[in-house]
Amino acid sequence: MSLPQSTLALDVDRQPGKPPILTADAGADPAQWTTRNRDALLAVLAEHGAVLVRGLGLADVDRIAATFHALSSDLMAERESFAPRDDHGQGVYSSSPWPQNQPMCMHHELSYALRFPGLMFFACRTAPTDGGATAVADASAVLDALPKKLIKRFERQGWLLTRSYNDEIGASVAQAFGTDDREAVARYCRANAIAFQWQPDGTLHTRQRRSAVVRHPISGRRCWFNQIAFLNEWTIAEEIREYLLDTYGADGLPFNTRYGNGDAIEPDVIDLLNAVYQDHTVREPWRAGDLLLVDNVRTAHSREPFDGPRDVLVGMGAATSLADCSPTIEVTTP
Predict the structure, then answer these.
(1) Is the keyword Oxidoreductase assigned to this protein (predicted)?
(2) Same domain for 179 and 265?
(3) What is the model's pLDDT at position 9?
């Protein structure tokens, strides 16, 4: 299949260890430039899974929103977030808050939801003085590098996400579901195959089982698509994990992951997953004004520790249904 003619005008810089990088026309209006080159950008994204656009000078929320909308007309409102975001309106959110000295390990945004973004957009308003890259990893390459026996188990059983909503760690019920009305939360959970239970102290516990391996809805490529390692207790820094266990107990952790049959995932498996991600990670330090496009099914992303201020805004586009990605397990309430 031939790419749009405008693709030929985009000079893609490919270097080992970095995502593909494009440079926008000097002085171009970011939304107009993106609209003019949309087909070409999406073609590069389809080929590589991620692309960084440099030189757009993105800084103003309205311009960032217009640029995101030029790439996807259906920016999603986030539901089931694991951490609270600031909502800037127009489908633009802050990055998920996370301790800046701790890595936010590789994951696919909302991979535990039945509807998730097919595309992720990141706009850097302020670059950190050191670190803080939004790194990416090819999910098909990660899948190919994992032990076949482990893959077969996850294909057969899926993975289980458990959550305990409280007012201290992670998103609150209202932030995750858009309401704290118990009946509305119950309706959402039933409609999205989430087992739920309100505790005597008012906290909400949920469980949801999802596929760990899916097929890309357009290319059909098999991808390791989940948040098994990122949201597992063994990825959390030891001192933070011990505090959470002492405070909430093993069954009350804000989030944790298990094999789909409910068995605990061994620490060495989590270490292996994170090591394979690291082997396939590419990164480019942020510069103010940068735009990063990520195919959320094909490509995992992370956020590395950093020093200094960091302001990266996020948009979620191309809403995608898990049912269109050939899940390996039936979606039922666990």
Answers:
(1) yes
(2) yes
(3) 56
Does 76 share its domain with 120?
yes
Q: Does 296 score more than 80 pLDDT?
A: yes
31: left (phi over 0), alpha (psi -120 to 50) or beta: alpha
Report pLDDT for 201.
86
Residue-wise pLDDT for 104-143, tens only, equals 999 999 999 999 999 999 999 999 999 999 999 999 999 9
The pLDDT value given to residue 208: 98
Query: Is the residue at 313 inside a domain?
Result: yes
Residues 307 and 288 both lie in one domain: yes
199 touches 205 (CB < 8 A): yes
Give residue-wise pLDDT tens across range 59-105. Answer: 999 999 999 999 998 899 999 998 889 999 999 999 988 889 999 99
Where does the pLDDT of residue 4 fall: very low under 50, low under 70, confident under 90, or very high at 90 and above? Answer: very low
Clarify whether residues 101 and 185 are in a common domain. no
Helix (H) or strand (E) holding 190: helix 182-191
d(CA 279, CA 247): 35
Per-residue tokens: 258: 């298990």
Q: What is the pLDDT of residue 2?
A: 34
Ranges assigned E (strand) in 222-310: 222-224, 255-259, 281-282, 291-295, 299-303, 306-307
Considering the domain architecture, whether residues 182 and 226 belong to the same structural domain is answered as yes
Q: For residue 318, is it left (φ>0), alpha (ψ between -120 and 50) or beta?
A: left
31 SS3 class? helix
Enter the tokens of residue 198.
């309100």
Instruction: Examine the domain organization and report whether 225 and 262 are in the same domain.
Output: yes
- The total of structural domains in the chain comes to 2
Residue ranges making up the domain that contains 246:
144-275
List residues bridging with 258 in a β-sheet: 160, 264
Judge whether 178 and 81 are in contact, CB under 8 Å.
no
Res. 6: pLDDT tops 70: no
What is the rounded CA–CA span in Å between residue 140 and residue 134?
Answer: 19
Q: Say whether both 38 and 77 belong to one domain.
A: yes
The CATH number covering residue 22 comes to 3.60.130.10
